[in-house]
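Quick start: read one record
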Amino acid sequence: MTHAAEPSQPRPAASVPSLDPSRRPTTVRTAVPAHVPSASYRLQLQPGFTLRDATAAVPYLAALGVSHLHLSPLLEPVPGSAHGYDTVDHGRIAEQLGGEPALRALAAEAHRHGLRLIADVVPNHMAVPAPEHLNRPLWQVLRDGPDSPYARWFDIDWQALPGPPDAPGHGRVLLPLLGDRLGAVLDQLAVDGDTLRYHDHVLPLRPGTEHLPLPELLARQWYRPAWWRLARTELNYRRFFTVNELIAVRVEDPEVFEATHGVLLRLHREGVLHGFRIDHPDGLADPRGYLERLAEATGGTYTVVEKILTGEERLPADWPCDGTTGYDALRRIDGVLTDHAGACRLAGAYEAFLTGAPPGGEPCADPHPALAAARRGRADMTGPEDELAAEIERLVRLAVRLGAADPAYADHPPWRLRAALRRLLTGYPAYRPYPRPGEPLPEVSSRQLREALAADDGTTDATDRFVAALAAGDLGRGPEQDEFAVRFAQTAAAVAAKGVEDTAFYRWNALLSLNEVGGEPARPGVRTEDFHAWCHYVERHWPHTMTVLSTHDTKRSADARARLAVLAEQPESWAAEAAAWSTAAGAGPGGPGPTAVDPDSDWLLWQTLVAAWPATPERLVAAVLKAAREAKVHTSWTTQSVRFERALADRVHAVFGNPGLLPRIEGYVASIAPYARSNTLAAALLHLTVPGVPDLYQGSEEPLYTLVDPDNRRAVDLGALAVRLTDSAMARPGDLAREKLHLTTTALHLRRTRPLGAHRPLTAVGPAADHLLAFGRGPNVLTAVTRLPYGLARGGGWRGTELHLPDGDAWTDALTLRRFASGPVLVKDLLADLPVALLTRDPA
């Protein structure tokens, strides 16, 4: 039955979908597909933690209670890659991880322990490596140009640059790999047989050009070596966001799909792999078509997609997959444990800290400064010299050609087209629309385009409407009309990711725990009724979706955010503490002296210290420098301010060298520890018992206080965790690591031994009822967690608040083994030992 707050939305059936759009399945999936996980455990494979290491950890992970191991990308990456998202060879499992024999050994050991494997798939892009011959398909394109059989693999606009003198109409590829302008590094280029060398780069020479003088030789190639700074404006291949070293793959081509997925599909057929996580589907030309093809190839195996949902956006109901990778769950779980009113007051205190003026007005009223920051971040991606200018120019070229071909669309000058594109991309309220040539644009995408067009003052001109119609596919069919709609969608996703999550989320820092993937810092907190409505929605439409709290991409781990959530409950005292720390650090924010930085950097530093404490200066420097570069206010990755970055690093080191300040920071972290503990355990239990499939990040079964990558991708000592697991049969008061590990393994084993039933909200009664979040999962499992613990303590505790335990047999708290009769129970008794409870009873 559909919850009243959520309209019924049909979704694909479990059967293999037809590729015929007119025959798409629309029934709700009710049966549990084969090998749907009860819970998964994410392992970051790298040279320091290989498939052999994962094999050694299988007994521990089985004992922990997961059903599936969730592996980071497996295919051959750039040598030494610490993440695997830079594939160079789809034809083999990474040798640095142990190769296919090691993967098979892992699968065999996993099967012996009743576990299965899920693999991370990267369909959107490949690496542009150095030396380039590591990517053989790209190598052949660079050597043979657009006539290469591999030219169809890559998303290259061959019309953007004139070709060699003997083939000017064929085009060339810009390779932005030179450290300076060509003339300044010409003497560093050297011909070596049939290759061209530049430091670590080794490029193929077009056959027959090896003996030409260097200037003529360069002119005759199918590529143009160029200064790296030209990528912003002249690059003519699609990238992963703004990463020049990752070239987009046209996986929508059936032959490219088969070639790039052949090994993984074979391993699936052979029973080595049992599910897939799809990286960045919003980069694909046709996400639904890709998922349909994958489902057809796998028989509908367990598949989740890294789709970032914005606000109340929903995963398209016609995507044949099991759900998202879980950032939507992160936002709800974090949100229900965050004080909305306090976060709003903290936003006002933050603005006062920056300006020196007292807080004024309603800090959460529209237009919210976080929304303004997001809009500026998007706009900063799309200007004539900004990071995605080359992608904008590709759309401009398409629109100009369409205008030249049809008088009805003529006389839209390039400068006006750029402005219209910038307006639409800046105002688009989600990641992207989902056009599919030959089908009407989904209504939700049409509505979002209308919202973007109506942004600012709502006035539009003919060029604005022309560009919006092209983006919607409303101007008929044709290769260039279709390409515009698809490329606009892909560009919109890049603008959203880079402009919001990788820019705005580093510029507006009131409460850092809000600035997470899929987060809404302008809308802090989630009401309990909205949390339950989301649970009902997931249960009805995507019951096997992944849920996460920490990942390799979260900017701060769940336990770091649990500490920061306490600040929202004490905004005024935190603001006073931050000001005192700035004063104690010397010079003061913005003041004179070698360690002075701007107030925003100080605020960021202080919250980062709280989140990661205890942390080394090196970890802190890396995190705040990355934040400053991503913010692109004082420094950036491409235009680094040595002076500012030195001052920021000096500020961090000065803190650690200040004998008066460090004890105060340590004391503050200790003072909020009881409330952070409550948040940590509450989030962990919610994660493990809400509808969906919990995916645990490596090491997160114990408290984990990591920062943005690469800090969160370090190898974890699973052997040490295995030893501690044997000692976690019961929680030990005061030992948060043991408490969290015990909670995690208890809940995981519960999930493996019995299916969790329907989500049923339960409401406490009494003066502190708002501080308890409780729900049943069927008639015999019940979760109860404390929320907003600082406010609870300040208000005098539970004060007679009761929760009615559903009638019938008595209940046992699986975490403490304490028993409770059905009927009313005092919450202070229920949560006497822990701030959470996981109650169970045997089925009737």
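The chain has 27 helices and 25 strands.
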